[in-house]
UniProtKB/TrEMBL annotation:
One function term, GO molecular function aspect: hydrolase activity
Region annotation Disordered: where it falls in the sequence: 363-390
Keyword Transmembrane assigned: no
Keywords: Hydrolase
Protein name per Swiss-Prot or TrEMBL: DUF2800 domain-containing protein
Basic and acidic residues bias spans: 372-390
Length: 390
């Protein structure tokens, strides 16, 4: 495949990042507020960064830099020395790699491909830029592909602001060279067996870009009202944000209700307010603990050692002592079957499907309550009266 380039992503981050668009498009002052808090990372984020590096190496070898097995293996070996590396990471990266290859091969002629491309969307968002994992262009179609290594919840590509900002950046970069009319977006999450795809016309995407300009300007200026919501869990100010605190504490207003039994309307309203309450309290606890451990005072609270669990200093040596004293080795171990997920991990998805697909079923999940905005179809129970009428 020809006409392909790659660019190493820069380390700096935009104030109005594409990944944070779901926050600052709703809660415009949040970006400036987050600036006052230090950036943090986590083991999960570092694990994702390593997976992206392996994916880039594989894509680079396949599309950009022909390299012999020795060179490739040496580079891969260095990445595998990272303590966060696990062998299963290679399988998950391969799923993303294979998806990119499939998309590229589906174009009627050799497309243009670039990976880890810095994208400038500052035409619509002040100082806005980000890094696109993979961009493929052929004919009149631009395809943006995002690789997410996390295993939290599936992320939908539908109307996704992060993907749309990346697409706007790609349109700005390539519209002079290509007559792009369609924009396709994909989010690949191999650890969740999730690939979400969505398509929008270039014209509609540009219209959306124009529509967010005033919102982005307010966010850049730190103006507007704080709007608590589900997006708060990704905000660095989530523990100390006053608007979030006031929103959660507003449940006290329900103490003034007079009727002895609340209505379904009130149940719905309380649940909407309360769904973030547990998350907020957990965020406060984590913040307070970190402050106490740093030697700062949180009135009424202190950090102590939690419950400790006994453990062997050397289990193998301890078991040898037991066996030497007449304890049967079989008494010291439990034999239990692997879970379905563990067997699939052991065999690999293809072999698992080949051998065991006939023995696997996916029963309906346990009914659970979710906000009306959830994309899953609602369960509708038929009452005995309705059943009788039918």
């Amino acid at each position: 495949m020809k006409n392909i380039e790659a660019q190493v992503p820069v380390a700096e981050h935009a104030l109005l990042s594409a990944s944070g668009a779901h926050k600052w498009l709703v809660c415009t002052p949040s970006a400036r507020l987050e600036e006052t808090f230090p950036e943090t990372t986590s083991e999960y984020a570092e694990e994702g960064r390593l997976a992206h590096q392996i994916a880039e190496l594989k894509l680079r070898k396949h599309f950009i830099e022909p390299m012999g097995p020795k060179t490739f293996n040496n580079k891969l070996k260095k990445l595998k020395e990272n303590p966060l590396f696990q062998e299963e990471m290679l399988n998950h990266v391969d799923e993303y790699f294979n998806y990119v290859c499939k998309i590229a091969l589906n174009y009627p002629s050799t497309p243009y491909v670039t990976i880890e491309k810095k994208l400038d969307y500052s035409t619509y968002v002040p100082e806005g830029f980000g890094t696109g994992d993979c961009i493929i262009i052929g004919g009149d179609t631009l395809h943006i592909i995002d690789f997410k290594y996390g295993k939290g919840v599936p992320v939908s590509a539908e109307d996704n602001p992060q993907m749309k900002l990346y697409a706007l950046g790609a349109l700005s970069a390539y519209s002079i060279l290509y007559s792009i009319k369609k924009v396709k977006m994909s989010i690949v999450q191999p650890r969740l067996d999730s690939i979400s795809e969505w398509e929008i016309s270039a014209a509609d995407l540009l219209t959306w870009g124009e529509s967010i300009k005033p919102i982005a300007q307010k966010a850049f200026n730190g103006e507007g009202n704080f709007v608590p919501g589900d997006h708060c869990r990704f905000c660095r100010a989530k523990a100390l944000c006053r608007a979030r605190a006031e929103f959660n504490m507003s449940l006290e207003s329900y103490n003034m209700m007079k009727p002895p039994i609340i209505s379904n309307q009130e149940v719905g309203e309380i649940l909407i307010k309360a769904q973030d309450l547990v998350k907020w309290v957990k965020d406060l606890e984590e913040y307070a603990l970190s402050e106490c451990l740093a030697g700062n005072d949180i009135p009424g609270w202190k950090a102590v050692e939690g419950r400790s669990v006994r453990q062997f200093t050397d289990q193998e040596a301890a078991f040898k002592v037991l066996m030497a004293n007449g304890i049967d080795e079989a008494m010291l171990y439990e034999r239990k079957p692997l879970t379905l997920a563990s067997v699939e991990k052991l065999l690999g998805k293809a072999k698992f499907k080949e051998l065991l697909d006939a023995y696997v079923e996916t029963p309906p999940g346990k009914p659970t309550l979710v906000p009306e905005s959830d994309k899953r179809e609602p369960i509708r129970r038929i009452s005995a009266e309705e059943d009788f009428k039918s």
